[in-house]
Amino acid sequence: MTMLERKKWASIAVSTGAIALLAVLAGCRVGPRYHAPAPPAVTAPNYKESTVNFKDADGWKVASPQDAMIRGNWWEVFHEPELNALEEQLNINNQNIKISFQNLMEARALVAEARAQYWPTITAAPGWNRQRSSSNLRNSTQANTGQTSTLWSAPLDVSWTPDFWGRIRNQVHAAQYAAQVSAADLEVEKLTEQSSLAQFFFEIRGQDMLQQILNQTVDADQKALDAAQGAYDSGTGDYISVVEAKATLQSAQSSAINVGLSRAQYEHAIAMLLGKIATDFSVPVKPLTYTVPAIPTGVPSQLVERRPDIAAAERTLAEANATIGIGYGAFFPQVTISAEGGFESSLFKHLFDWPSRIWSVGPSTSQIIFDGGLYRAELHQYEATYNADLATYRQSVLTAFQQVEDAMSSTRIYSQQILRQQDAVKSAQQFLDLEMERYQSGVDPYVDVVTAQTTLLGNQETLNSLQVQEMISSVQLVQALGGGWDRSQLPTPAQIGAKVPNGDYKLQQ
Fold first, then answer.
1. Which of 258, 185, 180 is nearest to 218 (CA)?
2. What pLDDT was estimated at residue 509?
3. Taking Cα atoms as reference points, which of 30, 26, 109, 105 lies closest to residue 321?
4. Are strands 357-366 and 121-124 parallel, antiparallel or unpaired?
5. Model's pTM, two decimal places?
6. Which domains are delineated in the chain?
7. Distances (CA, A) of 506 to 29, 329, 501
């Protein structure tokens, strides 16, 4: 084997070894491996506020079997077509949902930015330069002083920083996890806006029922005033009964007018949720006649997988773990491989001739020797952030169970209270009927009738308020359970990192 062949094979061996070393180093990744934390153990087979523990809770309903869950459009459980139509409009036109969606798109773009670091940077910088050197350079060794020269150049620079210690991979993973957080936040925002719409909707229906109650009260009070006035005119009644009847009527009329204020405000709030001008939006009048449906609650062990806010907290923890890996990577040297090639010539016609070629190649390494403990302090910061995020995740789980139990207890207690309040309304109506008979027979004064009327109206208003609160509690229960969402709907890191069509980033008008 000749000397030239030996050099050739030695060069190949060195190149092969370098490539193998790069491959091995590129597979290194520093930093702790991430393991999703175990949520607090749930030993109970059912929620505390369930019929298992309240068998005597008349009026309280839960779906059977207990492990059933709401899927998809959760608001359809209320069987209200108008609410369904409004929710569909909200999902399309709500501005807060659009903000959360664009936050997700921004997060996905950040993933693409992080992944771009895997690749070399190639720069082309063609140029033209004409210059004249000074003729008054003493002791100059240049032979061309006082001359004018022209330089055409067409260089191409290539720079690549291999990911030896997993710094870029950790950055990519952190960006992916952050994008998953944005995806979960989008679902939280959707659920929040959808729940608000349903609550406002039932508030309006409650106001319509209250308006009907007060209108009926005004009609009854008007008849009572007419009767008192007739009795006074005929000489069988006294004037104080007329004044008391008139005062009762006027109070009821005032209350009936005031109902419109709350209804208008709820209507305006729904318009805003739908992305509409409040001036151009209205909800038809329809008194509340609903009964709370049996809400599928599932079992406690499923709750962690159903809440998008818990998913967001867990993904935030994964992002913090990847950031710790980035912090560890700062302790290792950074190697950059650079190469430059191209053409230079004083005449453009010879710019791309073979003798005009230029090139250079070589790696460089940089390593911080002393930074006053900066990197170590940053690493401690990242670790503290991780620990705080871990506590936030566990707190999110505890809050979720609290909210479910709160909503279930509210719905259960309201359902029982409504049954008693319905009896109270019946008794108040009977009290008014009897008192009216006693007044007309001359046994009792009219003030006793006023007392009975006030008692009936108060009980009717309380019953209506309880029925509205029961509907709202049922909506809050669905929200606390995570709506129709579960963790399987959260996009994976691979799906998050998939290319987004450029049209999705188009500026909106």
1. 258
2. 60
3. 30
4. unpaired
5. 0.86
6. 29-116+172-331+376-500 (1.20.1600.10)
7. 37, 36, 10
